[in-house]
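Fill-in record for Protein ImuA.
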Amino acid sequence: MRSSTVLVDLSDAPEGVWRGDELGEAGAATCPSGHPGLDAELPGGGWPLGAMTELLQPDAEAPLWPVLLPSLARAVAERGQPVALIGPPHEPFGPALAAGGLPLEALLWVRADAAPARLWACEQALRCAEVAAVLAWLPQARLGELRRLQLAAARHGALLFVCRPDAVAPSASPARLRLRLQPRPDGQLDVHLLKRRGPPLAHPLPMPGRGTRLGGLLDATRPGRPVAPASTRTLPMGEGGATVVRLDLRRALRQDPAHALARASVAA
């Protein structure tokens, strides 16, 4: 049997037909990222609601908060509900997050070391109507487990970010958006769009690797400055040892604030 090639002209296609050379989901629900250059490249002009956004990093210590903090602060302000942090690599550094617009009382830190506990906690947070967004570190998640999270986010229209190692980039993912965050020697970030509904992005997007208020925060933490006392309240969550840590007051600054601000869980 002789095969034949059929060329279809879509120039006169009706409205609602997506073309592969243009950004899709113009009417999809999104949350602005807070970075105009990035929003211009994201389908719908922002992070998708009701879908997974996957963030790949060379290691868990790489900068992350400068990219996500504006959108998380906006989600909290609009909905008046907390952000769930599932298994962050370090304790959230409250003063830096608050300086970026994310109040400390709006954080729910779920401390879980085992992969099953993190997945369970992430699903429960996605099903909770009292959570504005979920940010989870799931380095060992498998494809089927990620699909479950994608379905949970879709059912409840949640804002979901999943952090994974850069080594999984060649593998398949159900995420609607997939980005690689690559630190540069000058302290900036290169954001690669690995997956989106639209044409590939030829060049990475440059973004700041540190928040604009970092200098002022470092000045405020110099020796001799008074530091607010800190206290925490832990709530057992079940399923493999996951624990919710509610940060009630600002965490006392460490002896080396510059090092603390460079951590992945810090809004540096």
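KEY FINDING: The domain at 49-216+229-261 is CATH 3.40.50.300 (Rossmann fold).
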